[in-house]
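Tutorial sheet, problem 5. The two components below are modelled jointly, 652 residues in total.
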Amino acid sequence: MQTATNTIDDAEIAKFEAMAAEWWDLEGKFKPLHMLNPCRLDYITSQIAAEFARDLDASAPFEGLRILDIGCGGGLLCEPMARLGATVVGVDAAPRNIPVAQVHAEQMGLTIDYRVGTAEALAEAGEQFDVVLNMEVVEHVADPLGYLTACQQLLKPGGLHICSTINRNPKSFAMAIVGAEWVMRWLPKGTHEFAKFITPDELFDLLQKAGLDPVDRKGFQFNPISWTWRISDRDLTVNYVTAATKP
Amino acid sequence: MRNDSDILIVGGGLNGPVLALALARAGFGVTVIDSTSRDTRAAPDFDGRSYALALASCRLLRALGLWDKLAPHAEPMLEIKVTDGRAGEGPSPWMLHFDHAEIEEGPMGHMVEDRHLRAALLDAMDASPAITHLAGETVVTQDVAGPRVLLSLASGQQVKGSLLVGADGRGSGTAERAGIGRTGWGYDQTAIVCAVAHEKPHGGIAHQFFMPSGPLAILPLTENRCSIVWSETDSRAAEIMALDDAGFLDALRPAFGSFLGEISLTGARFTYPLGLTLADRFVDDRLALVGDAAHGVHPIAGQGLNAGLRDVAALVDVLTDARRRGEDPGSAAALARYQQWRRFDTASLAVATDLFNRLFSNDNPILRAARDLGIGAVNATPSLRRTFMREAAGLTGDLPRLMRG
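Model answer (structure tokens):
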């Protein structure tokens, strides 16, 4: 029996390893996320460093900070946060992502607390964080205000909430749905629903209603010539990100 | 989360130590593995080359705190004169003249001898607590296991890091062990390198004579000395090297000319076979190649070391940015950015130097006429002259932070 159990475990682990390799393959199906990731990380790390007065050139600058990543997937944001010294919890509503993320973190020698779950469930359990990362999730939820309120409850007073999503206008329709889903096939068709896209003003309004103070917003701008993303002060027409604090 | 030896550098020439110093300054722990022993490398006659350090390279060395030590041994290059010549006939009337007075950044670069560079680098590595220098050590195996690269050395020692950098020159063993192929060919040319003393001051002027068998460069060194880089066909170079010093000078004089008065040798003569070698890729699993390990080019434009130092500065930018945002500096994502930054530039340099050498190292009358016209056209057009000078000074393109001054 023991042998049989091990065999099943080994086969499961091999499957998770293969899925982890897929998550972390730069040219694989998560290529669009990998392309965007340095830009997202630049924003996240600079906002956390500014809010909590940390020096990014120091060793383990985020030591002592408890960070939650909602919709953690394979751990593309959790691992960098852990590497910077934070205590990291990653949650994902899709159960299959969790062992995949766990396997990869182990391979990298990182300790990350991955769980199947939702922001609402964590808030109900009374979990508290210094930082909540809420990246490319809000455009998928049924009740954005209820969801953002749960995110607010998860923060300690003085905590930082970083939320990115997609603007709603003809250009974002052309780029995020026609371009990314229909033409480039970066994302499966139907990944995004145009009506659920949120304008920056609407998001600021929702964040305030949820009890947060919006403090910053920037665009993530794609350069189709160099195939890279950059942070833009002005161009929030498609992908954008916001920072808000809990009073 | 930082490991004591984040980065392992194989190669103790010039690019390897400069990279080690730049990474140490950025907060990384570094181990340098050099197959040459320290005593051999420290000997004054270990390597007779001199380098035309472009302005951007000088800025990098200044940023690393090396320049104060090098400055007394550095000769500013104020002008460059390029002439199409044929031994015995003197220079053709077509001449290309670059004068630093036409660009605002000052001298196009500085001439520094290898012996001074490597001494400064050895001292600086000794003084850096973040650098472990293993000299006289060779790599036997290199393996990647998860987030670590493991090297076993001939002495039996094992070292670990998150990234391996091959700075081990044209025949890079690091690249070979990783299964990275190379493209390239020899030029059937050998560069004879030596330093000569002369009677008259050189005035900071570098000369490049294009002879049918290969270019002759006369590059200003400190005091009344010049570094000679004399490219000849392999067979002719062997004949020249077989001559005694007096015979060698007799062979050099017709090409060198008499504009600096009487000339004499100040040290040994060295030879270097010339060829082109380009690694098929500059990165692999937890591996990056810099300098000649990635791209060895013809010295015709004096850009080999400058291109290597630009690799170094670019890699430092990429790794520092990666670490600041919490990425794994040895990850494929980070390394892909380095390759994207440097591969096109260096491949272009390889092609340009190759074409240049083919165009100038021959006696074909049609090509001679064509290149004389080209030289004349560039010389007659100030904006083109300035473009060439800024290119030679390393000021064009996407400059890494350490080279911005």
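Marking note: Residues 1-6 of chain A have pLDDT under 50 and may be disordered. Full credit if you identified this.
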